[in-house]
Amino acid sequence: MDVVVTGIGLVSALGDTLQSSWQKLLANQSRILLRQPFPELEPRPLAMLGKFPVTLNCLAEQVVDAALQDAGLAIPLADCGVVIGSSRSYQSQWELQVRQRLMAQTLPDDPIALPWLDTLPGQVAIAAARQIGSGGPVLAPMAACATGLWAIAQGYELVRTGQCQRVIAGAVEAPITPLTLAGFQQMGALAATGAYPFDRRREGLVLGEGAAVLVLEPAELAQQRSASIYGRILGFGFTADGYHMSAPDPTSRTAINAVKQCLKRSHLTPEAIDYIHAHGTATQLNDRNEAHLIQHVFPQRVLVSSTKGATGHTLGVSGAFGAAFCLMALRHQILPPCVGLQQPEFDLNFVREAGDRAVQNALCFSFGFGGQNAVLAFSQ
Questions:
Q1: Residue 107 above 60 pLDDT?
Q2: Is 313 labeled as catalytic in the residue annotation?
Q3: Of 80, 145, 338, 364, which residue is the catalytic one?
Q4: What's the CA gap between 102 and 120, in Å, rounded?
Q5: CA max distance for the chain
Q6: Whole-structure pTM over 0.85, yes or no?
Q7: pLDDT of residue 355
Q8: Which end of the chain has fewer CB within 10 Å, C or N?
Q9: Mean pLDDT for the stretch of residues 246-261
Q10: Strand 80-85 to 138-139 pairing
């Protein structure tokens, strides 16, 4: 069964809609700015949606509504599955609750009085299911920065195997919290001035807020209702290094296996790939390993870009962003540039400026802490 994408909802620091984000991305714009959302922490470059950090539920509701409207669907959708993940989940609320309790120097006698039930990791997916009136499967994957692609792959399998007529799949992230910033700072992973993927002067990642979900359904059903189709999901590949808690395997062996697994399931050869949306975090280790992986598996002509120089690194959402941008590239036959890249360190065919390109097949990469490797293939 062919599974296609008929709707996309996306909110990024670039814009509060898919179209506005896409247009600014093509114009090589970046919304990474020096911010100080927490007075106890020094200013840092961040990709925020507004002046203050956002909340998870507001983001999720907004992108689900946008995706359904884009797909031409009305609620209730009782037969629609929901697969929406988040790598940080409700961490901002947890930190706020702890801070409030510490400031008050008291805890309630009854532990149930703490609002923890409303902030369990799966609640964002449950809230989305309630929003659309769904009685179908509800999943909330959590796989670090591979969360978005894992969610889409799970949604793809639910549709492909006939378990759901439709699925809304993607990820939501509100990662601008004191603990998240402090943690990445202690690791030495945060940039001081901006995000420059694959550049010789790259400093590290820039955290960003955002959300992206896709509406997946069988091609036959989409054609029956004359829905507009962005593209088709061909297959996926997932592996885990088992090498280190945060660093990737320097041999890229299992990451390469994820790519080959995806290509095999998608009935594609490396030569058939026209474009790769790279993970491209602008960290030393990721960009080096990812570049070597691409050089090892693909012909030199394959076009490559990372969009994190524009949107920041949205952690679990980054793969869902990449999937949405791949689908826009397939629909419009325009590739997004590698924003922030000025002096490439690696011999790859980077997209430096947006332009018309013949794109039939595209891959999206995500690599997460714990050595989680995710690859999804899309076609026209």
A1: no
A2: yes
A3: 145
A4: 21
A5: 65
A6: yes
A7: 87
A8: N
A9: 87
A10: parallel
* Secondary-structure class of domain 3-379 per CATH: alpha beta
Q: Say whether 279 is catalytic.
A: yes
Polymer length in residues for the chain: 380
Residue 105 confidence (pLDDT): 66
According to DSSP, residue 342 is labeled S
- Dihedral sign computed on CA atoms, order 89, 93, 94, 96: positive
- Token pair belonging to 53: 């950090």
Which of 80, 164, 313, 338 is flagged as catalytic? Answer: 313
Sign of the torsion angle spanned by Cα atoms 352, 14, 33, 190:
negative
Tell me: the pLDDT tens digits for 280-314? 999 999 999 999 999 999 988 899 999 999 999 99
Q: Which of 80, 164, 277, 279 is catalytic?
A: 279
Phi-psi region of 28 (alpha: psi -120 to 50; beta: other; left: phi over 0): left
Give the C-alpha distances (Å, rounded to integers) separating 4 from 216, 219, 330, 377.
6, 6, 12, 12
User: What is the DSSP pairing of strand 372-379 with strand 231-240?
Assistant: antiparallel
More confident residue, 367 or 102: 367
